[in-house]
Amino acid sequence: MPSRVPVSILVSVPHTRLASPAVLSRSPGPGRAAYAAAETAGVVLAGLGVWLALAVLGFLDRPYLEVSALAVGAGLFPLRQRFPVAVPLLLAALTGLAPCVGPVAAVASYTVARGTVRARRRARLLAAAGAVVVASATAAAPWLGPGSVPYGLALGLVLAPTAVIVPGLVGTSYGQQRRLVRALRERGDAAERARRFADSEARLHERSRIAAEMHDLVGHRLSLISLHAGGLELALDRADPELREEAVLVRRTTQDAMRELRQSLGVLGPLGRDTGADALTDATGTRADIETLVAESRDGGIAVGLDWTGPDLDTRPARVRRAVHRVVRESLTNVHRYAGAAHVTVTVVHGDETVRVSVRNGAPASAVSAAHVGSGRGLTGLRERVELLGGTFDAAPLPSGGFHVDAAVPAEPGDAPAPLRPGAGVETADGVPGTVGDTAGVVPGRPTAQALTLLLGLGALCVLMVLGTAFVYAGAPHQDAGPRPLPRVGMTYQEVTGLDVLDNRAVRAAATGHEPPRPAGAVGCVYPFTGATESRPGALRIARYCFDSAERLIAIDRFTVPSVQDASPWETP
Predict the structure, then answer these.
(1) Which of 206, 269, 510, 550 is spaced 20 to 30 Å from 288 by Cα?
(2) How far is the C-alpha of 444 from the C-alpha of 544, rounded, in Å?
């Protein structure tokens, strides 16, 4: 390997959890406030549309009062989630008073029904709100509504389904669908985690089996070689001292091979333990342990500097300390092999969430030949160990000719999955590949379709509210319906003439000379044409309306005068 390898262990621990759509709980913030404001503005515009349509049709007796009711409803609308019972009931009451509040009440009923889980509570709320609409419209009919109690009842029966019942049922259906999808998604996520856990257990068992077989077979053979080498060493102690040194070398090399084998078996076995003579201890990976490794390298002639930032690692999990130990030891071993004369810097940064290890060395005094370059399996093993903990690993030559090894390990790895590398799937802490879940819990494009559907539904409800209200108002009797009132004594001349009681010359001429005396104080009389025929042959019925000097009607007289008989065409006078 080219030069010494610094290691920086940087780890982020993502907690992958399948989120429900409700996150639909939306967190408060500028985006949520803007959404709420837009929602309120939308329902107010819908209410204004209903108000304008009724005004154009001429069914608004008090338009300003209804606009005031709409403003009150707009103020109550944002409070529907905080007060899910009081606000729908108040909006229902306002809807009975002013139909233009109906769109606001409809959206509030939809929202509350969608978020209410208990079916009985939801049914009682919708029934109560519908009854409040009917009662309010019936009570307000003589003053603010169509004009009579029966027609107010009809208006309430029209507004209750469109403003409360139908939106509430739609919200109930959507809420149940959303909760069902969330439950199915959580169940699928649980099944996926169970499958990954089973795969992880299978891998751990297989690794443990391979490690046990290698320890039993290869370890046994190496132990025999070491034993025979020790016997040969004793035998050659007197016979051939020169060959004895070779036997000592064979025995020590065998012991080193046994130790390295047991260390390698720790990678195959579970991460929580290591096997062999170098089994994990409480001191492994601590500051004292790293200082010991640095001191050993200094004794071997390597200029090594240690920079430790943060508290000791004695409180961290064993697998984190083992990873730090292995990164530093492997990096220093590579420096011994390929850059013995280079200066080395070991940096350990212990933070609250991450342990970073960096080992950097300068350029070697002479280039390393291809025959002496290692296989790179040591760095591969380090990468696997770090990434299995959810960390990141990087090892590469430096532009200056040296080498760096950087690793980042989470201080508390837990069961967090490893970070996703480009072109790879998600890996869990035990290396089992997984899939990335949709943390938002919403299929792309679906919110837009749902919003358009709800807008179209609200528009249809507004049309139904306008049509139903118009039919009720059109069928209700108006104040000017029925026969016109008759003149009565005490009315002014203008009021009498306003009732189409006008003087007729022919009737006046017929009454002249045959009418009874006028009442005292009368200064003028009006002889209207009543359209009456002769009361009997030769007699004509006439009405006379007499006024005083103040133009007040003081008498209404009806009398009979003789009618004028026209001569027959063949008769001559």
Answers:
(1) 269
(2) 86
- Phi, psi (deg, nearest 5) at residue 486: -90, 155
| 3-class SS of residue 256 | helix
From the centroid of its chain, how far is CA 130? 29
Q: Look up residue 197 and give its two tokens.
A: 């856990």
Tokens for 87, please give them.
């606000």
What are 331's two structure tokens?
């990096």
Residue holding tokens 């053979």? 221
**Residue 320 contacts by C-beta under 8 Å, 6 or more apart in sequence?**
285, 313, 355, 389, 409, 410, 411, 412, 413
Per-residue pLDDT at 216: 62
* pLDDT value for 244: 77
Q: CB–CB of 551/492 below 8 Å?
A: yes
Tokens of 6: 């610094």
Integer Cα distance of 478 and 499 in angstroms: 18
DSSP single-letter state for residue 20:
-
For residues 319 and 351, is the Cβ–Cβ distance under 8 A?
no
428 phi-psi bin (left φ>0, alpha ψ -120 to 50, beta other): beta
Task: Map residue 216 onto helix, strand or coil.
Answer: helix
Q: Helix or strand or coil: residue 393? A: strand
Q: What is the pLDDT of residues 364-394, one digit of tens each?
A: 766 654 444 554 567 777 887 788 888 899 9
Q: What is the pLDDT of residues 416-429, one digit of tens each?
A: 444 444 433 333 33
Nearest to 199 by CA among 438, 419, 391, 435: 435
**Which residues is 539 bridged to in the sheet?**
536, 562
- 429-433: long-range contacts, CB 8 A cutoff, minimum separation 24: 429/200, 429/388, 429/389, 429/390, 430/200, 430/203, 430/204, 430/388, 431/200, 431/203, 431/384, 431/387, 431/388, 432/196, 432/199, 432/200, 432/203
- Packing angle of the helix pair 30-57, 102-115 (nearest 10 deg): 140
Which pTM value belongs to this model?
A: 0.47
Residue 129 tokens read as 């709100």
CA distance 22 to 183: 12
Quote the distance between the C-alpha of residue 318 and its chain's center: 40
Per-residue tokens: 74? 């707009």
Distance between CA atoms of residues 331 and 3, nearest Å: 9
Question: Which residues are CB-neighbours of 479 under 8 A, at least 6 positions away?
Answer: 147
What local confidence, expressed as pLDDT, does residue 326 receive?
85
- Determine the 3-state secondary structure of 139 from DSSP: helix
Q: Which helix (H) or strand (E) holds 346?
A: strand 343-350
